[in-house]
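Researcher: Next entry in the queue.
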Amino acid sequence: MSDPALESELVRRVARGDEVALAVLYDRLAPLAYGLALRIAGDKRSAQDAVQEAFLNVWHGAERFVATRGTARAWVLRIVRNSAIDRARSEGAHERARLRAIELGGVSWPAAPERPDLQLVGQESRSALDSALDELPAEQRRLIEIAFFQGLSHTEIATREGIPLGTVKARIRTGIGRLRQIAAQGRIHA
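Model: Structure for this entry, 190 residues:
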């Protein structure tokens, strides 16, 4: 269950170099973070790497957390989201290079090992989020998925979808408001 005050205190302690606080914060948020990263990155290895990188960024940058701007959970998940988007973009470049290497010389790369524990948590988180997203009108769901899971800005979405920027912003804002209501009802964990 979410406890914003506790999570904020944990981030403040992490900023003071408290490794135990980082471990507790990780235990609280890693399943949700992994589910988000998996949804964005699309594969287990990249999602795991994104979460690890994000928590390293939390460790090194906890002093940048400002409680008046939002919850610690949202701050950490934003770091995870950015890390996963960066990895997905980087993996795209690596995949293009790999395919080019295959064309040029038959190189094959080994598959990443699975983590069943994280896979199950990720599936549960993804299932809960998918259920909540299913409750949104199609146009809101689509734009939220593009923004959060493909990492496009509102302007990029407006251009790609051929709709006004204000419409994109309004649909995403309304959809997120609805997701918050669903979370407040306890049907998903925010």
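Model: DSSP finds eight helices and no strands in the chain.
Researcher: Noted, moving on.
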